Amino acid sequence: MGLITFEKYELVVFKKLNDATDFRLNLILGNGKSLQRERRKIYIIKDLTEFLYVGEANTSIKTRFKSGFISHRYFVRNEKARGGYKGYKWIGEYVKKEDHVLNVFVSIFDQEYDIDRTFLESVEGEIVFLIRQNSGSWPLFQNEIHFNNRQNANAIALEIFNKILSS
């Protein structure tokens, strides 16, 4: 069906000595393929009670977060976007909290989807919709949703959503 692996990470958000916000990823479930491979993936960020964000990437998950954190630091320091991107909106909120630990769920797809971003965007949109249906609200820091009707996207989204709920 397209999904090759499902992983869960603990994302620890913290401030360094120079007051810059940084992160650490700890593998909880899976084999770490999302850290090693450049492959299309969908990632979902969740705290203990709320879904925060659903995204799609074609880089390793660590590279994706690194880019988001670097852009966030740049925006905080310079009050302007870095290359049009301000980084993740949730970073500033979670570094202020007592508990800086979030859950990240990553679904990596077969190689055939590496060139089919619209399919992954379809799955991403379906996951966001499932979150809305089940919780009554959109992911707290979701910026946009891509609507592409693609065969099997809703079935794969439901498979991913059920794995999140059961892990």
Quick structural summary:
By secondary structure, the chain is α+β, with helices and mostly antiparallel strands. The protein is 37% helix and 26% strand.
Structural class: alpha+beta
Radius of gyration over all CA atoms, rounded = 15 Å
Second rung of CATH, namely the architecture: 3-Layer(aba) Sandwich
Number of discrete domains: 1
How much helicity do the residues have?
Answer: 25-40%
CATH class placement: Alpha Beta
Give the CATH topology: GIY-YIG endonuclease
The portion of residues forming beta strands comes to 25-35%
What about the largest sheet? 5 strands, antiparallel
Poorly predicted regions are none
Topology:
Layout: E1 3-15, E2 21-29, H1 33-36, E3 41-46, E4 51-57, H2 61-78, H3 90-96, E5 101-109, H4 117-135, H5 153-166
What can you tell me about this protein's structure?
There is one protein chain. By secondary structure, this protein is α+β, with helices and mostly antiparallel strands. The chain has a single domain, classed as 3-Layer(aba) Sandwich (GIY-YIG endonuclease). It contains five helices and five strands. It has helices at residues 33-36, 61-78, 90-96, 117-135, 153-166; strands at residues 3-15, 21-29, 41-46, 51-57, 101-109. α4 crosses α5.
List keywords for this structure.
single chain; 167 residues; GIY-YIG endonuclease; 5 strands; globular
